[in-house]
């Protein structure tokens, strides 16, 4: 093997690992219910980052299943439940949310992920805010 080939191979392996930066990332969710007096700001972790993908030049020749691209998604997650303060007795004051334990680059699973481009959303409180650090 030529030294150029070996160096190219090593560079590709190193760059490929460094370029896929998919990991748990801190995120704040703002949760409020119309019936409750407060908005709850919950600090959690989500999967975020960049995954290496390849775009095929032969798109018309391949099946749609072969064209799926990798996204940063949950490898392992758990759910936690928070209590929204200031809710009347007739309202369920609980909110369950996912916490990313570990992440991976893989196909998007619509059972627990939004796999389309995210619309512009506001993530803020309209009521007085309480912070929840779990």
Automatic annotation (TrEMBL):
Keywords: Disulfide bond, Glycoprotein, Hormone, Secreted, Signal. Residues 21-125 form the Glycoprotein hormone subunit beta domain. It comes from Setophaga kirtlandii. CDD domains: GHB_like (cd00069). Belongs to the glycoprotein hormones subunit beta family. Residues 1-18 form the signal peptide. GO terms for molecular function: hormone activity. GO terms for cellular component: cytoplasm; extracellular space. The gene is Tshb. GO terms for biological process: G protein-coupled receptor signaling pathway. InterPro entries: Cystine-knot_cytokine, Glyco_hormone_CN, Gonadotropin_bsu, Gonadotropin_bsu_CS. The keyword Transmembrane does not apply. The lineage of its organism: Eukaryota, Metazoa, Chordata, Craniata, Vertebrata. It is found in: Secreted. PROSITE patterns: GLYCO_HORMONE_BETA_1 (PS00261), GLYCO_HORMONE_BETA_2 (PS00689). Pfam families: Cys_knot. This is Thyrotropin subunit beta. The keyword Secreted applies. Heterodimer of a common alpha chain and a unique beta chain which confers biological specificity to thyrotropin, lutropin, follitropin and gonadotropin.
């Amino acid at each position: 093997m030529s030294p150029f080939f070996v160096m190219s191979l090593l560079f590709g392996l190193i760059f490929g690992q460094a370029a896929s930066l998919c990991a748990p990332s801190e995120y704040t969710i703002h949760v409020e219910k119309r019936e409750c007096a407060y908005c709850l700001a919950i600090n959690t972790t989500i999967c975020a980052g960049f995954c290496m993908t390849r775009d095929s030049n032969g798109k018309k020749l391949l099946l749609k299943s072969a064209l799926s691209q990798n996204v940063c998604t949950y490898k392992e997650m758990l759910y936690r439940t928070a209590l929204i303060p200031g809710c009347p007795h007739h309202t369920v004051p609980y909110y369950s949310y996912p916490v990313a334990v570990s992440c991976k680059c893989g196909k998007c699973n619509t059972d627990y992920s939004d796999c389309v481009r995210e619309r512009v959303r506001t993530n803020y409180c309209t009521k007085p805010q309480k912070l929840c650090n779990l």
